[in-house]
């Protein structure tokens, strides 16, 4: 720590105090501007602290540069100016090269960005420390903030130094990527040119084949004309016979071709008929699937919707059970709002048809009771569908139960008749039981 003599006020604290002014004048940090500094109390006779207002940071860093420069230059001479800096750069480069993913462009870019961000953070902390030193009235705290600022400045410089090889590596990898893409583009262009050349060669060969075929056809016509001339020279009779035979052969060939064409036409007609039949079958299957889908959709919508009896459906139920006037009944319902709402609507239909509501005959066991808007009471029930229950003692009301079950099912409310055990605690009433929606 001999070179970092920030507290040595007796040392020279000016930029030109060193014998090697150019070597020791390296930029050692960023310092706040001396703003609103009052005029000196006396004539400026030196380079100490007569002008600054309780601020020695600039002189201390100047001293740091002088002392550190001398301590390194005396034993090593020009090694500091050339070899030391090169050695530091080589070490940093080797450190960065052996980091993982050195050949990955994304990894190098991410590392470079992180180091640059860290340098910015340390520079920001340096500014904060300088601001705190400027605002502090305590000399000790002021110098402590100055020292901390120097540390942050050193960390920022270190982050920039470490970030440098990553920046160089980023440029190298980017250039390699561009070269690789350019090579691939040239290769694709070459392949396209080769394919175009091959296509032109194939077209040329096809033209040559067509030309040769025309020549062969011309030769065949020439040979045919020569044969005809020879036949004419042999005699008119022989020529007439040959012509007749040729005509007959042509007719036979044409007849064969016509028969073949007719067979092909019949085969195509059969194929078209088969395709039409397959299309009709497919259309019927599609219609069946559509109808099945609509049926399933309607069923799902019905299952998802709340069960209810509107006024029209209540009137239909009332008309079907009206012949059984005076039938006694009691109520039971699940504790869900949907089931209770449905029970109220069924109760309205029963009351309007002249059926008589009677409470349960069971007054001994503990029961949970729900009060309906019309003053009737319903016991708590655990179950799913709507059930109409009666005991064997009420077999005379079985037609009424059958009529009510049919009316509710016709209205879209799934309902089942059930026979209650002979020891039921309320055997004298028909049990209207509305469970939760399935």
Topology readout:
Layout: H1 21-24, H2 57-76, H3 80-97, H4 105-135, H5 139-234, H6 236-304, H7 311-321, E1 328-333, H8 337-352, E2 356-357, E3 369-371, E4 377-380, E5 386-390, H9 398-410, E6 415-419, E7 430-434
Parallel strand pairs: 1-2, 1-4, 1-7, 5-6
Antiparallel strand pairs: 3-4, 5-7
Helix pairs in contact: 3-5, 4-5, 5-6, 7-8, 7-9
Q: Report the strand count.
A: 7
Instruction: Report, as a whole number of angstroms, the end-to-end distance.
Output: 86 Å
Show unreliable segments.
Answer: 1-28, 41-88, 94-98
Element pattern in H and E: HHHHHHHEHEEEEHEE
Strand content: 5-15%
**Mean residue pLDDT:** 77
State the secondary-structure class: alpha/beta
Number of helices: 9
Q: Helix coverage percent of residues?
A: 55-70%
Shape: flat
How does the major sheet shape up?
7 strands, mixed
What would you report as the Rg, rounded to the nearest angstrom?
55 Å
In summary, what is this structure?
With 438 residues, this protein is of the alpha/beta class. Helix content is 63%, strand content 7%. Among the domains are: 21-33 and 46-184, no CATH class; 311-434, no CATH class.
């Amino acid at each position: 720590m001999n070179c970092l003599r920030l507290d040595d006020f007796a040392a020279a604290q000016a930029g030109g105090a060193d014998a090697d002014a150019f070597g020791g004048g390296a930029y050692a940090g960023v310092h706040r501007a001396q703003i609103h500094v009052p005029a000196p109390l006396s004539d400026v006779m030196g380079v100490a602290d007569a002008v600054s207002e309780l601020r020695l940071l600039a002189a201390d860093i100047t001293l740091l540069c002088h002392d550190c420069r001398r301590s390194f230059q005396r034993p090593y001479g020009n090694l500091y100016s050339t070899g030391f800096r090169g050695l530091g750069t080589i070490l940093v480069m080797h450190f960065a090269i052996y980091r993982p993913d050195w050949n990955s462009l994304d990894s190098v870019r991410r590392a470079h960005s992180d180091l640059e961000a860290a340098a910015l953070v340390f520079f920001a902390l340096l500014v904060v420390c300088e601001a705190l030193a400027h605002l502090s009235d305590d000399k000790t705290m002021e110098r402590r903030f100055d020292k901390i600022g120097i540390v942050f400045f050193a960390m920022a410089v270190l982050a920039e130094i470490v970030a440098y090889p990553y920046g160089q590596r980023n440029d190298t990898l980017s250039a390699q990527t561009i070269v690789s893409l350019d090579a691939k583009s040239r290769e694709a262009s070459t392949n396209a040119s080769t394919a175009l050349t091959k296509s032109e060669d194939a077209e040329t060969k096809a033209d040559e084949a067509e030309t040769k075929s025309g020549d062969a056809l011309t030769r065949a016509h020439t040979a045919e004309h020569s044969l005809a001339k020879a036949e004419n020279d042999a005699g008119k009779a022989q020529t007439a016979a040959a012509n007749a035979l040729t005509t007959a052969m042509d007719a036979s060939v044409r007849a064969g071709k016509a028969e073949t064409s007719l067979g092909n036409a019949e085969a195509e007609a059969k194929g078209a008929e088969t395709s039409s039949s397959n299309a009709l079958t497919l259309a019927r299957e599609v219609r069946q699937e559509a109808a099945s889908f609509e049926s399933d959709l309607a069923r799902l919508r019905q299952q998802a919707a709340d069960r209810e009896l509107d006024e029209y459906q209540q009137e239909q139920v009332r008309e079907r059970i009206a012949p059984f006037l005076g039938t006694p009944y009691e109520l039971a319902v699940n504790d869900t709002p949907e089931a209770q709402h449905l029970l109220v609507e069924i109760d309205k239909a029963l009351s309007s048809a002249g059926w008589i509501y009677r409470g349960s005959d069971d007054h001994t066991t503990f029961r949970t009771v729900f009060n309906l808007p019309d003053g009737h009471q319903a016991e708590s029930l655990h179950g799913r569908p709507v059930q109409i229950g009666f005991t064997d003692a009420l077999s005379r009301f079985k037609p009424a139960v059958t009529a009510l079950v049919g009316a509710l099912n016709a209205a879209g409310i799934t309902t089942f008749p059930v026979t209650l055990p002979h020891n039921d605690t309320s055997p004298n009433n028909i049990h209207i039981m509305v469970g939760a929606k399935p």
